[in-house]
Amino acid sequence: MVMKILFIKLIRTIWKTKGQFLAMVSIVTIGISIYIAITTGFYNLRHSRDIFYQENNFADYYFQVIKAPEKITNKIEALPEVQKVSGRIQQDVPVIKNDKKRGTARLTSYNLPIDKAVNRIQLLNGRFFDENPLSGDIEVMIDPQHLSANNLSMFDKITIIADEKQVPLTIVGTATGPEFTYLIKDAATLVPDPQKFGVIMIPTIQAQKILKMDGQINQIIVKFKPGIDQEKAAQKIEKILEPYGNLASFPREQQLSHAALQGELDGLLTTSRFLPVLFLLVAAAAQFVLIRRMVQNQQTEIGILKALGYSGRSLIIHFTGYALLVSVVGIIAGIILGLIFASAISDLYAQFFNLPAAIGGINVKTIIYSIILSLSTGIIAGISATLSIVKINPAESMRLKPPVVRSHSLLEKWPWLWQKIDTSWRMGLRTVNRNRIRSTITFAGVVISVALLVISMFMNDSIDYMLDQHFNQEVNYDFMVRFSNPVKNSELGILYDIKGVNKVEPLLEIPVKIRYKDKRENALIIGLIPTSGMQFPVQKNGHKLSIPEEGILLNEQTAKKLNVTVGDVITVEPLINKTKSKTRELKIMGINHQLMGGNSFVSLKQANQLLNEANTANGAMLKADRGKFSLIEKELSNITGISSISSRQSERDNFMSMLDSLIYFIGIMLTFAIILGFAIIYNSSILSFNERRREFASLQAMGFFKRDISNLLLKETVLEAAPGIILGLPAGYIMAHSYVKSVSTDLYSMPVVISPLTYFLAALGGIIFVLIGHYWGIRRLKDLNPHEVLKNID
């Protein structure tokens, strides 16, 4: 009976304060929906990845060599640290597409049967290739994105160039593997371009024939036994492979596809940890203020209930029930909204990542955690706000509560300044000083809301900066071509002969191993002419660095790993042409801070010296007439010795096409931030209005107009919110910087760039939700009747 009466009272209280109740529910809903959506997305993506990796025996380490006999894998597999080894051929080859333009395919070979191999592939459509089909064709499988993007079908033929000859291949199926979940050509390519780059899976025996590598392989992939020191084991394998030209070795963590997928998982984990917590903390604080004010306003009723025999515990449960109902309704709405968002996130990841296992699904553990998190927040807020009930004495509760005596504010201690302030502003300052807890929570809520507005928009600024920096500042070529084999600079005349080409610059790319003291790193060095006008390394401030005649401009990530700086001397060992190349010591002349690619630069002359060559290049950069790009690309595609063609405009267009999802993310985040700010201001304004109804009625009876009272309340709101808007801007920068730091990888590092327009729009958004929340909160002022309010004064 007791609980029934209190429950009825609780329902009446909720109905009476339904606006505040719904405002707090909306904050909880947003917090829970973000937590469920992002955490579900994280767990589903990670679960799908882990299953895929495990089922297909994903390699722990990669070793790239020039050529090695197939039987070398037996020697490596005999090592006690090794569990399984597979040897194969992997090489990028040109593809002649149906439109006669040039694409690139990563030709990857597999031994049959595949089921016991490291990095197995999973059939998606069609069938597995046959090593020696009766038709005499060379059967292959390709990745499904490349098939779809190029309008190919089963049993279509695709033509590659191998050993400078056109080789037709027959498509018999589509497949994917753990190393192909995010297909990008190299570290400079941030987003996949399935139309121009794909994977061709082929029997090893056929790859050996078309590449003239009978009995040879060029890549060894290793699965280690659990718990061993992989770096030490890798050094043993490198010694075994040393006679065969060990070009590179790297662990799974540096494999491009895995690194991109892991970076996305890290970003999801970071977001799932801090965003929902912010919303739930704000919700808890708002509930604390509201319930605390309820207890204070209902002190007489509480005294009567205690005199009638209601215990303090039952009354605490009663008021805490308000917070619990906020949490329960927020949980229900948040779970529904969160699952909708989680489904959208899963669909998005299905487009980006080649994971056959279903990415979607409901994560029950996440829902349970969200329920516990929300209920705990509500209980803590409710109990902490109602503990004073225990101290309420029934007899004393009948008396009117004496006015709260507060110390003077800081401004009041300076009479010369205080007297110059308008009376209405002084009233506002005193009100803020009297309600310090509520004012502090309102201020903090506005700071968080404005900071979230900044974070929502900063990614657009940062991406715009990255695109401008990379495509307009760091590179200036229209086309970059790479050759199947190194050529002399004098042979580049064939490129000048193409109509529309205005300028050609040679480049020499060399995979190297860089050593400094006891540390070593694999890297790519690019040799350019010192006066290059096509590609520019940059300083941290974005200013261009000149290519030195002697020495090296070392990539930032490599410099950090080696713990070196400008002036240090490093040892550079070329990993190609080992019979002629020389290991040299180079002085670090500068640090290259390019945002994409992670390359180091030397002069073309010094790059040639590393290989003990002269006037040699394995690539070239071209400037051309804009109106002739298509014709030039077709002409380049007809040159057999060119292995790949990159177009700066095409790369930029492809990058832009992948940014549609960012627009939805920004829109959702902006909406959530504005709802949070509105709810906080609305809650504060309606509390201030309700507790001061008699004061405003008295002012109205004394001749004040309702607009004067509205302006007075607005000034109080401005005093609480304005500092929050101002401090929310730098808080947004700090939060953005922390987020970027947590998700940066060796593949890319997003700069924290926030334009003045973003700060302006965030501040404007703050002003808008403050004004809307304020006027919505005091809308009942127009119904205020002084006679009805004042006649009830004791």
The largest sheet is: 9 strands, mixed
| Assembly state of the chains shown | single chain
Uncertain segments are none
Q: End-to-end distance, in Å?
A: 32 Å
Radius of gyration: 34 Å
Discrete helix count = 23
The overall pLDDT, averaged over residues, is 84
Shape: elongated
Structural class: alpha+beta
Helical percent range? 40-55%
Report on this model:
The chain has 794 residues and is an alpha+beta fold. It is 50% helix and 20% strand. It contains 23 helices and 20 strands. Strands 12, 13, 14, 15, 16, 17, 18, 19 and 20 form a nine-stranded mixed sheet that branches. Strands 3-4-9-6-8-7 form a six-stranded mixed beta barrel. The chain is elongated and about 100 Å long. The two termini are 32 Å apart.
What are the SSEs and their pairings?
Elements: H1 2-16, H2 18-55, E1 61-69, H3 72-77, E2 82-88, E3 90-96, E4 102-110, E5 122-126, E6 139-142, H4 144-149, E7 157-162, E8 165-176, E9 197-203, H5 204-210, E10 216-224, H6 230-241, E11 246-251, H7 256-297, H8 299-307, H9 312-352, H10 364-386, H11 415-418, H12 423-434, H13 436-474, E12 479-488, H14 493-496, E13 501-516, E14 519-528, E15 552-555, H15 556-562, E16 569-574, E17 584-592, E18 600-603, H16 604-610, E19 616-624, H17 629-637, E20 642-647, H18 648-657, H19 660-691, H20 693-701, H21 706-743, H22 756-777, H23 786-790
Parallel strand pairs: 4-9, 6-8, 14-18, 15-17
Antiparallel strand pairs: 1-10, 1-11, 2-10, 3-4, 3-7, 5-8, 6-9, 7-8, 12-19, 12-20, 13-14, 13-16, 13-19, 16-17
